[in-house]
Amino acid sequence: MPINPALLATSIGALADLDPEPDLPASLQRAVAAAKQLLDADAAGITLTDATGELHWASGSDQRAQAVENDREACAAGPCAEAFTTGRPAVMYDAYQERRRGGPWGEVSLTIADLEARSALSVPIDLGHGPIGTLDIYTTNPRGWEHTDVCALQAYAGVVAGLLGAATKAHIGGGLADQLQVAALSALDQ
Description:
There is one protein chain. The protein has helices spanning 5-13, 20-38, 63-70, 72-77, 79-86, 95-100, 107-114, 147-170, 175-189, and strands spanning 43-49, 55-60, 90-92, 119-126, 131-139. The chain is built from 9 helices and 5 strands; from the N terminus they run ααββαααβααββαα. The protein has a single domain (22-189), classed as 2-Layer Sandwich (Beta-Lactamase), CATH 3.30.450.40. The protein is an alpha+beta fold. It is globular.
């Protein structure tokens, strides 16, 4: 079912008061939860790149999201990696079917399915100099992602990018902010 633009605007508008300074992880968590809810997904997460270009979990809606985002194989070759390297949205409609049909992710499809995610949509998080990570949503059932789903997730990725950009400018301390600094510097070097 297509995303209702009015519901998207309301959901994004409800995030207008997010401020990364007092608690960046909580602000990111709230943005991820809003995306998960509007897109009727089972899990959502954020990955950020490190100095070597590898993606790592930064925030998630729950343990399922963290498990998928932390899985090296899934992150290195799955939809989040494709969205990050191409700078474009990446879609996995059905991990089981894509594996059988020789889909673009091969064995990674089964790895993702083993983590109780059957379908995924990933979009890059861009701070203007290239992607620094991805915003990813997962469902436990196959899903035919629509254009409005992609556009909605890109809108949430814009909110996340704004939070991360503000955090970088404010030099907020902590592990996530350090990871963000590395990701931002990596994007500038590309």
